[in-house]
Design a protein that fits this description.
With 176 residues, the chain is an all-alpha fold. It folds into 2 domains: 103 residues, Recoverin, domain 1; 33 residues, no CATH class. It contains 9 helices and 2 strands. Strands 1-2 form a two-stranded antiparallel ribbon. The chain is rod-shaped, with a radius of gyration of 32 Å. This is Tubulin polymerization-promoting protein family member 3. It comes from Bucco capensis. Belongs to the TPPP family. Keywords: Cytoplasm, Cytoskeleton, Microtubule.
């Protein structure tokens, strides 16, 4: 029972890495780039006994002569090829089990993903509380944009110059 769940999680890992970075991928076949990523993310590549070159050589060995991808069965063969090299002190079967445990249940890791950082000039330019003039009119008090109403040129037909402080006070003065 434990072995079947391990194989299911191994196949699940294969599928997750197979579709990584490719919107059209079905999860049935894995390309060389994703195979190398799987080996790197799951710590199959240790830099001493297995390097990225070894991973590429094994990929070329297990795939078909004209093929560019490997299926799940070829994937298992590739792990079998790498297992004795990665775990030299164990028997072939134990090494294969150990390498399967490294891969099983893992997902692609997003390392080096760039996050936008507002610092210096960018921070000053995007702070709406510091806007003046007509640009200030495009945002409400909270700094949220008003949309089209913030860009429209609304005509003031009161007869006063825009931003005149005493607008609307003439009638009060004349009636006195």
């Amino acid at each position: 029972m434990a072995e079947s769940t391990e194989m299911a999680s191994l196949e699940e890992s294969f599928r997750k890495f197979a579709i990584y970075g490719d919107t059209k991928a079905t999860g049935q076949e894995m390309n060389g780039k994703n195979w190398a990523k799987l080996c790197k993310d799951c710590k199959v590549i240790d830099g001493k006994s297995i390097t990225s070159t070894d991973v590429d050589i094994v990929f070329s060995k297990v795939k078909g002569k004209t093929a560019r991808v490997i299926n799940y069965e070829e994937f298992k063969k590739a792990l079998e090829e790498l297992a004795p090299k990665r775990f030299k002190d164990k028997s072939k079967e134990e090494a294969y089990e150990a390498i399967c445990q490294l891969v099983a249940g893992k997902e692609p890791i997003n390392v080096g993903v760039t996050k936008a950082k507002a610092v210096g000039a960018v921070e000053r330019l995007t702070d709406t509380s510091k806007y003046t003039g007509s640009h200030k009119e495009r945002f409400d008090e909270s700094g949220k944009g008003k949309g089209k109403s913030g860009r429209e040129n609304i005509v003031d037909t009161s007869g006063y110059v825009s931003a005149y402080k005493n607008a609307g006070t003439y009638d009060a003065k004349v009636k006195k």
